[in-house]
Amino acid sequence: MSGRGRRITDEEINELVSKLQSLLPESRRRNIGRASASKLLKETCSYIKSLHREVDGLSDRLSGLMATMDSDSPQADIIRSLLRS
């Protein structure tokens, strides 16, 4: 898809839409069925936003947990090793 000014074919768009749809969880795919590319993009954006909220919430919980934990404890070591992976 490189090459300035090159038009994307309908086949390439269909392939990209199909790949994008396959990345959505089954529950979200059911909501859109065989929807338009526009509806699929909106649902994908919504899903990404929900993932960001979930990550933020988990990060806040983890920060709170780490703040209450002795930094030399085995649990803190486990959490640090998980964060490095």
UniProtKB/TrEMBL annotation:
It comes from the Eukaryota. Pfam families: bHLH_ILI. Residues 1-51 form the BHLH domain. Gene3D superfamilies: Helix-loop-helix DNA-binding domain. Signal peptide: none annotated. SUPFAM superfamilies: HLH, helix-loop-helix DNA-binding domain (SSF47459). One of its GO terms (molecular function) is protein dimerization activity. Keywords: Growth regulation, Transcription, Transcription regulation. GO terms for biological process: regulation of DNA-templated transcription; regulation of growth. This is (wild Malaysian banana) hypothetical protein. It comes from Musa acuminata subsp. malaccensis. The lineage of its organism: Eukaryota, Viridiplantae, Streptophyta, Embryophyta, Tracheophyta.
